[in-house]
């Protein structure tokens, strides 16, 4: 996947995608580049480091800086998240030409305001153009509700222009819930792909002439090992209750790419803190582990665009290789 970089010139745009945890950032990036590179799960904080996904179209390289969700101190302690995760967000913003803020409009608790930490971060990089992406709009019943959400999140201002009737609203509603510097707003459903192409066109229109950092056929700067481990971690987050997935140690034991056969073969070890948790993951007759394995295989086929053979083996911490191997 890593190639010698040719000094071809074209157009390049670096995009940082930020938002509250679980707002759909990774799913959106995967949709735009049409590969499942960014591991996505239905639990918070699947993305714990800066991952780049790359897409090449119309002589333009779109480079996504996939950032972790905004993390509070309390969450960092609860989920034992790496310190680096907190700084990764600001770091990626400094490399960005444009910033996309993903907001989940289907979450009734947060739909009408942007997280204060996020507004603070946006204010720190006010000179970098940013745009708002309202995600999961397919789940909203009323379109009128959508207009009121847009007013709240933009403080009634888009691209420096006030929205119709927003003066009346702001007089009535003194609470500042949004960010007034967005240059554009997009309505999408990352899951179904609706509206995603408009974002792609917008990004291409923001690209500048530059030397390409990556070859046109390169789609990530992550190693295959990292991509496989992240895909397994994301599925454990989906399938297991509460904090269990965060206590597992996942590592690649074997990897081979058979070019002629268009096949990837890999084996992943999962170290569990106790035998009880290993049994819980395995499920009755190994059924749950089989299910996880088949979902991971399907995700990885989407990543590598090749057929995938994967084995996942559970081990118990501090025990000799008394493997709970489920085939």
From TrEMBL:
Residues 45-49 are annotated as: G2. Residues 19-26 are annotated as: G1. It comes from the Eukaryota. One of its GO terms (biological process) is ribosomal small subunit assembly. Keywords: GTP-binding, Nucleotide-binding. Residues 135-138 are annotated as: G4. The keyword Zinc-finger does not apply. Residues 188-190 are annotated as: G5. One of its GO terms (cellular component) is mitochondrial matrix. One of its GO terms (molecular function) is GTP binding. Residues 66-69 are annotated as: G3. HAMAP family: GTPase_Era (MF_00367). PANTHER family: GTPASE ERA (PTHR42698), GTPASE ERA, MITOCHONDRIAL (PTHR42698:SF1). Belongs to the TRAFAC class TrmE-Era-EngA-EngB-Septin-like GTPase superfamily. Era GTPase family. This is GTPase Era, mitochondrial. It comes from Parnassius apollo (Apollo butterfly).
């Amino acid at each position: 996947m890593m190639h010698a970089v040719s000094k071809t010139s074209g157009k390049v745009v670096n995009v940082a995608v930020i938002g509250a945890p679980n707002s759909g950032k990774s799913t959106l990036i995967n949709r735009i580049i049409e590969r499942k590179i960014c591991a996505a799960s239905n639990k918070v904080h699947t993305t714990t480091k800066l991952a780049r996904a790359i897409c090449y179209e119309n002589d333009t390289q779109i480079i996504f800086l996939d950032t972790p969700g905004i993390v509070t101190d309390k969450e960092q302690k609860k989920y034992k998240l790496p310190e680096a995760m907190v700084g990764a967000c600001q770091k990626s913003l400094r490399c960005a030409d444009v910033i996309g803020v993903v907001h989940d409009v289907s979450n009734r608790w947060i739909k009408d305001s942007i997280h204060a930490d996020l507004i603070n971060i946006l204010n720190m990089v006010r000179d970098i153009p940013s745009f708002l992406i309202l995600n999961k709009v397919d789940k909203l019943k009323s379109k009128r509700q959508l207009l009121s959400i847009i007013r709240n999140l933009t403080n009634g201002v888009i691209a420096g222009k006030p929205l119709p009737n927003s003066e009346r609203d702001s007089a009535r509603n003194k609470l500042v819930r949004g960010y007034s510097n967005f240059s554009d707003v997009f309505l999408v459903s990352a899951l179904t792909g609706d509206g995603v192409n408009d974002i792609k066109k917008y990004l291409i229109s923001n690209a500048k002439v530059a030397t390409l950092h990556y070859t046109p056929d390169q789609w990530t700067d992550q190693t295959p090992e990292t991509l496989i481990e992240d895909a397994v971690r994301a599925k454990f987050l989906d399938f297991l209750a509460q904090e269990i997935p965060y206590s597992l140690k996942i590592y690649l034991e074997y990897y081979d790419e058979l070019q002629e056969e268009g096949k990837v073969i890999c084996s992943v070890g999962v170290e569990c803190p106790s035998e009880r948790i290993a049994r819980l993951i395995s499920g009755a007759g190994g059924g749950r582990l089989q299910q996880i394995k088949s979902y991971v295989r399907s995700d990885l086929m989407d990543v590598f665009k090749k057929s995938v053979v994967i084995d996942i083996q559970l081990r118990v911490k501090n025990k000799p290789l008394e493997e709970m191997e489920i085939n």
